[in-house]
What does this fold into?
Amino acid sequence: MGYQISRETANQIFAQLKEHYDIFAPKVFAGEGCFSDTDVIRYGKINALDEIEWERRSEYSFKEALLAVNETLFYFTEEETTVVSCSEKRLLIFLRSCDLHALKRLDAIYLENGPEDFYYRRLREKASFVLMGCSTTCENGFCVSMGTNRCDSYALYLKISEESVWADCKSQDLLPYFEKAQTCEVQPEYVTENAEKVTLPKNLSVDSFSNPIWEEYGSRCIGCGRCNFVCPTCTCFTMQDILYRDNENVGERRRVWASCQVDGYDEIAGGIEFRKTQGERLRFKVMHKIYDFEKRFGYPMCVGCGRCDSVCPEYISYTSLINRLAKEEA
Amino acid sequence: MKNEYIPFPSQVKEIIRHTDIEYTFRMSFSGDVKPGQFFEVSIPKFGEAPISVSGIGEDTVDLTIRKVGRVTNQIFEHYEGNSLLMRGPYGNGFDIAQFQGKEVVVIAGGTGLSPVKGIVDHFSKHPEDAVRTTLIAGFKSPQDVLFKEDFKDWEKTLNVIKTVDTAPEGYDGLTGMVTKYIPDLPLSDIPNTVFITVGPPVMIQFTIQEILKRKVPEENIWISHERKMCCGLGKCGHCKMDSTYICLDGPVFNYAKGKNLID
Amino acid sequence: MGLDINTKKAKKNAFRIGKVRGEGASRIRVPGGYLKAEILGLVQEIAQKYGNGVVHLTTRQGFEIEGIRLEDMDAINEMLQPIIELLDINQENPGTGYPASGTRNVCACIGNNVCPFANYNTSEFAKRIEDEIFPNDLHFKIALTGCPNDCAKVRLHDFGIVGMTMPQYDPGRCVSCQACIKGCKSLSVDALRMENYKIVRDEEKCIGCGVCVTKCPTRAFTRSKKKYYRLTLMGRTGKRNPRLGEDFLLWTDEDTIVKIILNTYRFVKEYINPKAPGGKEHIGYIIDRVGFTEYKKWALEGVELLPETKMKECVYWNGVHFDR
It folds into this structure.
């Protein structure tokens, strides 16, 4: 159901929602960018509608609202393990269409690939998603090419102007908040064209592994992992056991975001590494995004958000690499 | 809903010392488990590592642990009676039924013998289940030989080639890489012969080259991939090769599929 | 009739008396080396109208218009006026050029307008200092640099200002990738190590360069909201005892630096040798004569240091002595 409400009413609804929901949205962290006097837009818990950054795409994706950078799985003593409890509150996560499509990829790994993940499941069940429309394309985004520019699996759609807020509420749980609101037709805004256009190569195979393009781009890569950390579909983690200094028999086991571009990702006991060069690591990542994930799950992993291109300090363009692969096929 | 990440305690029944750095832990475990499967073994103090099952008893599983890396160094300080936390078993493991009635050649390097030891044990106890069973086991040096007691049993019933890469002067056993012994293996019926090979990646690569030279069909070769399996649950991503998660779909693969798995 | 020029006055008015009789140069100060490009056109005009068409880019980031006739100084001052205004240089009488030249142009590296390593806006801070100290006849040299790489070579100046940031670490965002550790080791002072998968910073060793922040791929390391500086004192070139400036304050702030510089002007007025040739005695030599303890007393007059500031109680200089 569509509604138009005043900004003031929206603020009141937000205040009511806050009692039952932890609300995560992209916001500006002033001065916390990579360089001096630069900001970073990333996800954080918000206390007011005004804290949300509506204009610019977040540098880091929504995934940290469901998958913390560091997540404690359990505490242990020598004999016992104690699972970390989680907040009673429900979750409301603001995101854009590309990210809502990314959610499907997170679900695939955490709910469908092997047994369900306890920690993801318990947050996922509590989460509802608020779609933020896109009136213009973002830098480097290619959602139209990936078919992720539109979606309708949201609980709530919001569009905001100085005075008014338009909402489309699909969730029964959220409908009561709009009880007194004036109804109207509301359709989510979405982009129909990006500046960036990407064609996926159709005939990738094991033979593509020997393409010199990987080494060409890999030689420019510094292996920092930013492309993975900003990606809404990258889900890898590493286990860490933390021992408390006061008593080394007691501690906690955490899982922490991992990057296939960073040293040690595939290193096994004895120091054997399977992908030693950045070229091999880059190939591993790109093939996962546009080839082997699809082979397993039936759709490409990449949602075309463009974050990896925007964040790469070495200006390695994933989109241009893919387009070159496609062009080579043609 | 089950929390797959929570390990269970398992008592260390017995510790068998093979070398200065390799020990077998006989752990209490009752449940279905196959050779080639693995457990995520942890001492809370030091973290988790995937360890292959190297033997299966009534109410026990053997875990042969090599003293490399942070985790396994410390396990050696725990002895009989203590507990270790573990999760599993994970992975597909070897299906021994598939090898019955065939000529079986097992080629293993170092700790690679662990995941195939259950197969060797089986055909050693039931030699009639196979046309003939050959074990080619390679170790770095005489000091690195694992399962010394088991070899004594195996040598009674199987064709055993135990070789070391390098040996001091006067060593009376076989020397050289495992690959050295493949060309001259007496194979009576190649289409009915299965090869099972596990070991360091480079060893597997050269071993398979030699096996293929004997005109063995790819479908008759089985391998097990050792990769970084942090979770064992298809989540952490570290063990993925192509569209395959080694922890879920492996670690045992028929070479016809396994050859296409590139890291 | 011979050329009748008060050279002392001309020099104070930012003209150089050259080696060719009747010729000199017009010196244009550009605080922080930061200027609108249109000024280049104005400089060009003067050089072509009154000079020999050649401009020298000075070692202190100014322009020196070569080959001007000394009798044209007034006309040149008229033409300098828009430049002085565009750069917002303190001036008493419009149209009369620069009111002083003793206190030299405040130099700066490019800073965080462009450079990814810089920890602050060097040109803005340079301008702030310029506004506070100019015009003044006393011979002061001040330079600012964005980070401890010290591209501006601030340790050759009376006051050297080096940008610092206090790394802020959020262990909850850290993925143990060790990019910061590797960066600090290879590019800086190796002040970081990992303990229990998290980063421990050796606060004594850390120089606040910010490499950890630029290397961090997850925003676990960020810059402090407050901007910090290292203040080095009394570096100099010259004939007697060239030397590098030595650290006086670490983790200090802009206000403190400005106060110390202004206090130093008062100190110099008090202690300068009245018989110094051309009324010019370098501060460093005055401090050498009077003693650092006395200087420090003056420098810190009315200054309240930040709790986190580290001060060197006594500063000793070395350098090459040609005068012994």
Notes: The CA atoms of residues 3 and 22 of chain C lie 7 Å apart. Chain C has three domains: 7-86, 107-164+227-311, 168-222.
